[in-house]
Structure formats: structure tokens, C-alpha cells
Amino acid sequence: MRQGTPSVTERMESELIARVAFFDRLSPDIAAASEDNLHRRFLPALAGQPGFVSGLWCKDADGNALSVSVWESAEALREGGAHANATPLLPGQREDQIASPDRVRLYEVTAFPGPVRA
Questions:
Q1: pLDDT tens for residues 66-98?
Q2: Residue 17: CB atoms within 10 Å
Q3: What is the pTM of this model?
């Protein structure tokens, strides 16, 4: 982690936290496998996690992608992310075909227009 970038454990437990992950220049095959993983395995696992508020997954025409997930607390981010990532791969999925982020940044959420899930 870069110097000056607070870790999850350095965050206050009561504030909303946004995790932004950047995926640079994914090949078409990796992008397709990652999107399949996102829709069939990861989103269903993530959506059921306590403290998960919202998420966005975006891509551009050049093969770049990013994900933004919003969490009720740093603890929810740690536990929910770990649980969702531990969900077993589905038949036909291969770990070496699913992209890992090139960079991850954490942000304090300063405004959120929607209700926070209880």
C-alpha cells in the first residue's frame, strides 16, 4: 500500500467506505471470463453480505474496468469482501481467467443519495 493511503483498519468503523478497484487493459478473453464471474458468482455472493450498501461495475471500449463498492464500515468491507471472494468457482470457471485489480483505493463516502441498507 502506498504511503499516505489509509488502510481499512485505520478507517473509522462508523463511516461509509468506498472501495474502488481498477483493472487495466483486460484482454477480451479475460474481460469476458471476469464479467461471467461477476454476474454468475461474485454479485450474488456480495449482495448477501452484511454491510454491503451498493456497487457499480464499469468498463470502457479499451478494456479498462473499475468497480466501486460501498460498505457501512471498514469491518463490513473486510469481512464481506473476504466471504464473497471465498465463494467457490462455478463449473467452467477458472481462477487464472478472472482478473484481479491492478490498483485498489479506499475512500470515505462524503455524500450518498440513497438509503443505507439496514
A1: 999 999 999 999 999 999 989 999 999 999 999
A2: 25
A3: 0.81
